[in-house]
Amino acid sequence: MNLKKLHLFLIISFACIYVSAQHDISISAEIDVEKKVLTIDQEIQFFNTSQDTLNKVVFHDWANAFSNKTTPLGERFSEDFLKRFYFAKDYERGSTIIQKITDTPLQKPLSWGRQDGNPDILWVETATPLYPGDSYTFSFQYKVKIPSSKFTRFGYHDNGNFSLKYWHLVPAIYDKEWKTYSHKNLDDLYAPASNYNINFTIPENYYIVSELSQDVKVSSKGDNYKSVVLDGLKRNEVKLFIEKNPTFYSFSTDKVDFISNIYDNHLMPEMKSVAIKRILNFLEDRLGPYPFDKILVSQNEYKSNPVYGLNQLPDIVRPFPDGFQYEIKQLKTITENYLENTLLINPRYDAWIKDAIHIYLMMEYTEQFYPDMKIIGKLSKVIGIRWFHAADLKFNDQYFLGYKNMMRLFLDQPLLSQQDKLVKFNQNIANAYKAGVGFKYLEDYLEDDEIIHQSIRNFYQNSLLKPTNSLEYKKALSDLSPKKVDWFFEDFIKTNTKLDFKIKSVKRKQDSLEVTIKNLGSHAMPVSLYGFNKKNLISKTWISDIDETKKVKIANDNLTKLVLDHDQKIPEVNRRNNYRNLKWIFNKPFQFRFLDDIEDPRYHQVFFIPEFEFNVYDGFTIASKFYNRTFIRRNFEYNVSPAYGFKSKKLLGSASFFNRHQIAEHGLYEIRYGVNGSMFSYAPDLLFRRFSSSVNFRFRPKDLRSNQKQRLIIRNVNVFRDRDEENPVETPDYNVFNVKYRYSDFNLLNFLGYTIDYQISKNFSKFSATVNYRKLFLNNRQLNLRLFAGTFLFNDTEKDGDFFSFALDRPTDYLFDYNYLGRSEDTGFVSQQIILAEGGFKSRLDYPFANQWITTFNANTNIWNWIYAYGDVGFVKNRNVSPKFVYDAGVRLSLVADFFELFFPVVSNNGFEVTQADYEEKIRFIITLSPETLIGLFTREWY
User: Fold this and answer.
1) How far apart are the C-alpha atoms of 43 and 29, rounded to whole Å?
2) Fewer CB within 10 Å: N-end or C-end of the chain?
3) Is residue 598's pLDDT more than 60?
4) Which residues contact residue 582 at a Cβ distance below 8 angstroms, ignoring those fewer than 6 apart?
C-alpha cells in the first residue's frame, strides 16, 4: 500500500513539474547604436519536461535568419517577389556571431552547430545526459548584428530608434521531437513560456519600452550609459523598443497598463482612452482577465497584420467616423497580442484556432458597438455610391468576401495547412477570415449565441499559459453543444471543400412542401432553409447530413419564397442558386448596375460601363460594355461591348462568353471553355472580324505556393477581312486551327518558360517553340535569355506575301492576338512599337521575314539598375535563298519590365546605327495599356 502511495506521489510530482516548470533566461545585453550591434551574455536554465532523456538541446536563433540571401527567410522574400532583401546592402542585413557556448557553473565548452539548411536553428550537446525532470544551464556569449527594419518592420530605423523582435536565443519546444521552424516572416515562433531577467545597457539618451517590469540603474560603463533591468514571468516572447525619439504613449486602466504607438491625430487622448478601456473590458468579458500587468501594441505589428480594406486609405479620404478607424486598428492588434501572449499553440500547424477566436471576437465587437457600420463607411451615404450593393454590406461582410475571393480563384487551402505552405493571401487574410466566419456559421447552426461565447471562454481559461491545441477547444465546445459538431472539425476545418447548396425542386403536398436540397459540395455540412410569405419570415429549418440530395417537408403557410441561408451565415462559394420563387417563373429579378459592384445573390445582375480604346485607324473608340463579372471572379462570365470609332465612324465591338470548371485540386485542375468575337479596323477604312472558340486546360502542382503553371490551349480562329480594292490580298478570309502548350515557372531569382505552338490552315502548317530563361545572381546581375525556332511543315502562301511568315522583329499578327497601336503601319511612330514575339529582334533588317524557317537567340543583361545591354543573333531562311545570318545589339531601358521599355539600337547588319540618318526612327518601344496586366505586377506576391 505504501509503495502504491509512493508511486502515485512520484507520478503527481512529475506531472506538476511537467506542467509548471518554466525555463529561466538571464540576459546581459549592450547595444552599440552606431554599429547597430548587440553584445549578449545569456544563461538559459532549460528544464526537461518531457519523458525522454536528452543529449542535446535545440535553440531558435532567428536573428541569424537575416545573414544572407539563401536562408529560408531570404528564400521566402524571393518567393513573395520582395526584392528589397535580395538587393539590400550587406550592412543592412543581420546575423548572429556565436563566440562561446559553455555549461554553468563548470564553464566547460560545449559542442554546438547549426541545422543543415537552417542557419537560424542552433543545437548544443549537453556534457551529461539530461534526464526527465532535470534542468541544465547553458551559457552563451554572442553578438547580434541588427538588420534594417525595412525587411520586417523590426530592426533599426533610419531615425535612430530600434524595434527588436526575435533578437536573442530561445529554447525550442520538445514534444517527443524538437519543434523547430525557421524564420519565414510569418510571426510564428513556437517558444515555451519562460521567466526572464534582462540587464540591458543603453545610451543615456535612449529609452526602453516593453511589456516587462523595468528598473533603471547606473551603468558600470559611465555617465553616458544606463542599465535597464527587465523582469517578466511566463513569457513566450520579449519585444523591446529602444528609442531616442519616443513614439509611445500609455494609459492606465483598472485592468492593465496599456502602451502603444498606434496614432490617430484626429482623436483627443480622452477618446483614445475610452476606446482602449472598452476593448480591454470586452476581451476580459469574452476571454478572461489578462494575466500580465502591461499590454503593448505597436504600429509595426499593426502594419504587419492590418485590417485590410478602406480603413487603410489615407486620412484625406477617411470613409469611417472619427474614432472608429483608430478603434478597429487597436482592436485588431490588442486582440492578437492578448491571444499570442497567453495561448501556447503551435502557430505553424495549429494557427486556425487563434485566428478563429481573433476574427470572431472582432466581428462580435463590431456587432455590439457598431452594428450599423458599413463596409465602405460613410461613402455608403454618398449619392451615386449608395446605389451600389457594396453600400448595403455591413463591415463584417468583408471577412466572407476575403475568403470567397480565394474560393472563386480555386486557391483556398485547408485551415490545418502548414503556415509556410499557404499562399500569401491565405496566410495573411483568407484563412483567418474563413476560421472566424466558420465560428459564425457554427453559432447560427447551434441556434444559441452563448454556446460559442462560453466555449471560447472555457478554452481560454483552461489553456492559459500552458501548451494547448485546437483539440482542447473541440472538447470544450462538444461539452456544451446539444448538436453534433464533428462536421465542423472534420470537414470545414480539415478540408477546403467549397460549400454550395441549391434548391433542386419543390413539390406541393396538401398543407406542406416537399423540398429537395442538393449538396454541390463533397462533404455533408448543414444548411438552413427559410420560408417567406412575401417579406415576412414564416419558418427556419436546419437540414443536416446532406450527402448528395435530401428531401425535407415543411409546413406550407402560404409561402411565396424559399431561401437557403437567408441571413448569409454560411460561407458558400455560390449564393446565387439559393432562391426559389413559388409564385413567379423567375426565381430572382434582373438588375442593371452602372460600374462594377459586389455580387448581390438576390438578383440577376448585369453591369455596364463606358470603355475607351485607341488605334490609329479607328482613333478613340467608346464602347458600352455589358458584363456580369463582379469584383470577385465568377465561373461563367460574359462581356458584350458594342463600340463606335470616332475616326473611322464605324460601329465596332467585341463579345466573349466563357465558363470555368474546376475538376481537381492539382494536376489538371481547371478546364475553361469559351467563344469570343471582335470587329475593328486593321487598316484605313478596312475592318476585320475575328471569331474564336477555345478549350483551355490548366495544370498546377500540389504546392499552391509554387509558381509552376502549365496550360494546353486548343482553339479555332476565323478571320474575315474587308478587301482593299487598290491593293487586294488573295486570302482576306482564313481559318487557323491552333494547339499551344505553355509551361512557366516564374520566380524572382529564376524564371523558366517555354511555349510549343502548332498551327494548321488551308494554305500552311507551321511549328514553333520559344524558350525563356532569366537568372538573378547573388551579385545582383541579371541575365535574360530567349530562344525561338520555327519552321513551316508546308507553305502555300506566296500569293499573300509574308503575311503568314515568321517575323524577325514585328509579327504581322494574323491571329489578332496582340494589342498593336497600328498593326498595318510600316512607317511613323506607331510602327516602332514591338512585341517580343517570334524573332524578337529590335532592329529592322533587310530580311524581316522567313517563309521556310527561322532560329534566333536573344540575350540581355543589366549594366546598371534598369539599364541593360541587349544582343540578338539568328538565321533566317527563305525559299530559294540561302540562310542569312542576322544580328543586332544595343541598349534597353527597362522602366517597367515587359510593360514599358525603350530599345536603342547600336550595331546590326545595317552597320553602326547610332551615326546613321533618322536614328530616332530606329528607336523601338514596348507599351502595355492593359490595366489587368499592370495589376498583375502588384498582385503576384499575394497569389
Assistant:
1) 12
2) N
3) yes
4) 506, 559, 560, 561, 562
Strand, coil or helix: 75: helix
Could you report the per-residue pLDDT of 92-127, keeping only the tens digit for each? 999 999 999 999 877 899 999 999 999 999 999 999
Question: How many Å apart are CA 852 and CA 823, to the nearest integer?
Answer: 23
Q: What pLDDT is attached to residue 13?
A: 40
Nearest to 496 by CA among 528, 455, 456, 525: 525
Cβ within 8 Å of residue 756, ≥6 positions away: 740, 741, 767, 768, 769
| Strand arrangement, sheet containing 501-509 | 501-509, 512-519, 549-555
CB of 823 closer than 8 Å to CB of 839: no
Tell me which residue of 678, 680, 660 sits closest to 670, measured CA to CA.
Answer: 660
- CB environment 382-416: b (16+ within 10 A), e (fewer): eeeeeebbbbebbbbbbbbbbbbbbbbebbbbbbe
Report which of 282, 325, 281, 292 is spatially closest to residue 306, judged by C-alpha positions. Answer: 325
- Tell me: the pLDDT tens digits for 270-281? 899 999 999 999
Closest CA to 543 of 533, 530, 558: 530
Q: What are the pLDDT digits (tens) for 642-662?
A: 999 999 999 999 999 999 999
| DSSP conformation letters of 442-472 | HHHHHT-HHHHHHHHHHHHHHHTTSB--HHH
pLDDT, one tens digit per residue, over 529-588 is: 999 998 899 999 999 999 899 999 999 888 999 999 999 999 999 999 999 998 877 788
Q: Please report, for residues 9, 12, 219, 514, 558, the alpha-carbon distance to residue 533 in angstroms, rounded to integers and kept in the order given.
A: 68, 64, 79, 17, 6
With the CA atoms of 832, 838, 843 and 849 taken in that order, what torsion angle do they form, in degrees rounded to the nearest 10? -100
Give the residues across from 852 on adjacent strands.
Answer: none
Angle at 708 between CA 703 and CA 712, to 5 degrees: 120
What domains sit in the chain, N to C, each tagged with a CATH number? 1-247 (2.60.40.1730), 370-491 (no CATH), 503-588 (2.60.40), 650-940 (2.40.160)
> What is the pLDDT, as a whole number, of residue 937?
60
pLDDT of the residue at 935: 62
Tell me the CA distances in angstroms from 38 to 30, 130, 212, 240, 358, one per residue in order.
6, 30, 19, 13, 34
The answer on pLDDT for 879 being more than 70 is yes
pLDDT of residue 120: 97
297, three cell numbers: 501594441
